[in-house]
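Practice problem 4.
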């Protein structure tokens, strides 16, 4: 019996999810985003640090982002496409917490078709996880 691929949840306006040359699926702009403009909010299920630890066990791809020292957002549950934003050592967006929400902002002008990329800096990935971004300034691993 052939298994059906998991459907991609509804996506935030202005982005689409499709295959990435960096890793798996990526998030791509469908509209222009000017430098400094909000791209989208990282959404999903709000989970505790205990639940985060459970969900991280044995995972190769992580779609969980820390909100603070206790809470995290699991974008694989109820995400909007931002959970597929890949890491790059040459990012074109940043992630900021604004009144309890995680918001992506353009670091430079992003054109339709460009992959939206974030420097994870500190993530739930192992500190030795190799980076695959291919940027000229690549530091060789995802976390700083």
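Answer key:
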């Amino acid at each position: 019996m052939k298994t059906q691929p998991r459907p991609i949840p509804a996506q935030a306006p202005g982005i689409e999810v499709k295959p990435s040359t960096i890793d798996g699926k990526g998030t791509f702009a469908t509209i222009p985003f000017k430098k400094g403009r909000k791209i989208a909010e990282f959404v999903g299920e709000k989970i505790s640090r205990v639940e985060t630890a459970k969900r991280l066990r044995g995972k190769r791809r992580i779609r969980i982002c820390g909100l603070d020292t206790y809470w995290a957002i699991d974008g694989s549950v109820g995400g909007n496409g931002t959970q597929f934003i890949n890491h790059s050592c040459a990012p074109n967006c940043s992630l900021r917490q604004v009144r309890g929400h995680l918001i992506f902002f353009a670091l430079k002008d992003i054109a339709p078709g460009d992959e939206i990329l974030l420097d994870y800096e500190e993530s739930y990935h192992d500190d030795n996880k190799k980076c695959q971004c291919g940027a000229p300034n690549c530091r060789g691993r995802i976390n700083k």
